[in-house]
Each structure stands twice: as C-alpha cells, then as structure tokens.
From TrEMBL:
It comes from the Bacteria. PANTHER family: D-LACTATE DEHYDROGENASE, GLYCOLATE OXIDASE SUBUNIT GLCE. SUPFAM superfamilies: FAD-binding/transporter-associated domain-like (SSF56176), FAD-linked oxidases, C-terminal domain (SSF55103). It holds the Pfam family FAD_binding_4. Keywords: FAD, Flavoprotein. InterPro entries: FAD-bd_PCMH, FAD-bd_PCMH-like_sf, FAD-bd_PCMH_sub2, FAD-linked_Oxase-like_C, Oxid_FAD_bind_N, Vanillyl_alc_oxidase_C-sub2. The keyword Nucleotidyltransferase does not apply. One of its GO terms (molecular function) is catalytic activity. This is Glycolate oxidase FAD binding subunit. Residues 1-181 form the FAD-binding PCMH-type domain. It comes from Microvirga guangxiensis.
Length: 395
C-alpha cells in the first residue's frame, strides 16, 4: 500500500485530488499511534501528516498557539511550558493503552477531540480549538476560524472537524487557545467509599464554589482500597483555603483522607488521564462510556452482573473506563443494552481488529442522526475516500 507523506499543504491537496479522481480510498494518520482505534480501514493507500511539523504562531500574551498538524504534542507542550502555559484540556496519551510507539500529533488531538481529567473545568479539546486548515475530499484547501479568541468566523466548521476522526478532511494546521499553568496542584483523597458514596462526594465537590479541576474515583481492587480523588489548582494560599473548605464540606462521608502533592499526585492523574489504571492485560478490551454521573454506579452494577469487568470513574462520574474480556463481542451487547436503558454512549477503544470489524465501535445512531451524518460526509468528501468506515460502516 502506498504511503503518502505530503511535504506541505499544497502537496496534500494534490494527493487527495488525484485520489478523488481515481477513486483511491485513503487512510489518514499522523504518526500512527492511534491506528488501532476505530473500525479497521479498508483502504488502498495512506496519507500521513508526519512531515507537516512546526509551530506556525505562538502569541503568549494572546494565549493562542498554531501548529502544523503533524507537530508532536510534546513539542507543543514544551513550548507552552517555557512561557508558563498549557493546553487546558489535558490531552490523553493513548500509547500505554494501545501499546504503540511514535509521537502523538497535535492534529490527532483535534481530529479525535482528545481530552483528559481537566475537561470538567476547561472543556474538551473542541472547546479550545479556534481555527483549522484542512484539505477536503475534493482536494480543496479550507480555512475556518481564526487565531484570536474574539474571531468566531467559521466556528461551526471548526467544531465539526473536532471529533470527525479524519472522515471529513485531512488537517494541515490547528489553532488552540491556551491557559496559564497554575502555581500549585494538590489532591484530596477520600478512602474507602463505595461507588455511590464516591459519586455523591464528587458531585458535592463539583457543585461547590471551590473550582475543582479533577474528580475521579478508583474502586477497591485486589489489595488496594477505594480512592476518591479531588484535584485543586491555583495560587498556594487559594489552594489551602479551598482544600480546608472541601474537607469540611465532605466530612459527612467519613473515612480517612490524604493529601497528594508533587510527583506522586502528577503520576496518579497521568494514570487516570491515560487509563493505565486498567492496563493489566493487553488481551482485555477497553471501553469508554459517557453517561450522567448519577447513573454511573447503576451502570457499572448492571455491567458487572453480566460480565467480569473492572472500571474507574472520571469527570465526576460522567466518564467510565471499563475493562472487559476480549473474547466474543468484548461485552458489546451488554454495554449497548445498558446505554439504551440508562442513557449514554459507549465507545470501544481497544480490541482486536476482528471484533472492531464485527461490532459497533461507536454508539449506534438513530436513523435521523445517521442521515445527517451521511449528508455531512457527502458534502465534505463526496467520493467517500477519506477514512471510509472508520467510524461507521459505509460512511
């Protein structure tokens, strides 16, 4: 299979236009660290942004950064750190979960709307994405959005590209708004709560005026007891005050409490961000479930009644990472039935290719939404050559 490595945007345009005219199906990627996600592509050739690298604009005072799509996330993070800034949405690194190598790219962060624990405070990647350049399925170069936050021209297309998984266009440049890095990070840990108690505590913390930037719960497992984690960031004196107030607010939940700071706290939140809490067996399937936080404990209870599963909660209980056996349908029938009953969306993040080919990787859409999805795909990629079938069969 031919692997195209365009040197610049015009080169990418020529490659895609030629593919469109010849009916050549293209698999889109950065450095391939997430190639094993989504439905397996049935394509004739590939096009990679790996050679489209470099930061094209950085205005620390305006808190805006632009980079070519193949730029490693680590380069963007390092550049921002030098000026005391960061990507607000704390993008996940899928390599530990998928066992892949290479460097995650900033274009993939936008294309897959990759976010982490700070989403509950800062929003998702799409909420910080304010500008894109991409090549559509006709080979046309499209620019949407701007490089300053007040410029909202074309904002809808910007949001549409976030989470489209390369099915609508080949990203060549992305622009994000950024935030200052906080002076201090600390984590309040409540020990020994069951799932329902933990979600109640997290809801109390998130509903308080104390600006929680992380809210997660790891149930008891093996010889480790349950841990409910609440993260605070900011100026040190503010963190101390909010920490004291939260301890008083959550005192009724009883049990012991700890404070995590420094590298230990950073490591815990990184393991939650990257779902390495669940990576105890490469043969197990991994699911990502979004649901109402108050329904999270009931959701996992029903799943556990039908499957051998392990899980933890992020986003105050609104995000559940679930590990199931990789045999059969990897628990798809049980999870789909549960999302239909309780509400929510389940995405199969890791499983063998044969399973990802035979079950719905993303939550099935109703007829009206699927019709809309097909219409959007046809308007951006009328020949259907870009990442065909990556999200839904036939699209």
């Amino acid at each position: 299979m031919t692997n195209h490595l365009p040197r610049d945007e015009q080169d990418a345009s020529d490659i895609i236009r030629d593919a469109s005219e010849k009916g050549i199906l293209l698999s889109l990627s950065g450095q391939g660290t997430k190639a094993e996600m989504g439905r397996p592509n049935q394509t004739d050739a590939s096009i990679s942004s790996a050679s489209l690298t470099g930061i094209t604009l950085y205005e620390p005072a305006e808190m805006v950064i632009s980079a070519k799509s193949g730029t490693p996330v680590s380069e963007v993070v390092r550049t921002l750190a030098e000026k005391g800034q960061l990507l607000p949405f704390e993008p996940m690194d899928y390599r530990p979960l998928l066992g892949t190598r290479g460097e995650p790219t900033i274009g993939a962060v936008a294309a897959m709307n990759i976010s982490g624990p700070r989403r509950i405070m800062a929003g998702a990647a799409r909420d910080s994405l304010i500008g894109v350049r991409f090549v559509n399925g006709r080979g046309e170069v499209v620019k949407s959005g701007g490089r300053v936050m007040k410029n909202v021209t074309g904002l809808d297309i910007v949001k549409l590209m976030a989470g489209s998984w390369g099915t609508l266009g080949f990203l060549t440049e992305v622009t994000f708004k950024v935030l200052p890095k906080q002076e201090r990070m600390t984590t309040l840990v409540l020990r020994g709560l069951n799932d329902a108690q933990a979600i109640d505590a997290l809801s109390q913390a998130l509903g308080s005026p104390f600006d929680v930037t992380g809210a997660a719960h790891i149930p008891a497992r093996d010889r480790q007891g349950a841990s409910t984690l609440i993260r605070l960031e900011g100026f040190s004196v503010s963190v101390d005050y909010r920490l004291g107030e939260l301890r008083r607010l959550l005192k009724r939940f009883g049990g012991s409490t700890d404070i995590l700071e420094g590298r230990g706290a950073e490591a815990v939140w990184q393991s939650l961000r990257d779902a390495t809490v669940l990576t105890d067996g490469a043969d197990r399937a991994i699911w990502r479930v979004s649901t109402a936080p108050t329904k999270g404990p009931e959701f996992t209870k029903r799943v556990a009644q039908a499957l051998e599963a392990q899980w933890y909660y992020d986003w105050g209980g609104g995000l559940i990472w679930i590990s199931t056996s990789g045999d059969g349908d990897a628990g798809a029938s049980v999870l789909r039935e549960t999302t239909q009953s309780l509400g929510g969306h389940a995405t199969l993040v890791r499983a063998p290719a044969e399973i990802r080919s035979s079950v719905d990787v993303f939550e099935p859409q109703n007829e009206a939404v699927m019709t809309l999805t097909k219409g959007i795909k046809a308007s951006f990629d009328p020949s259907g050559i870009l990442n065909p079938g990556r999200m839904y069969a036939g699209i």
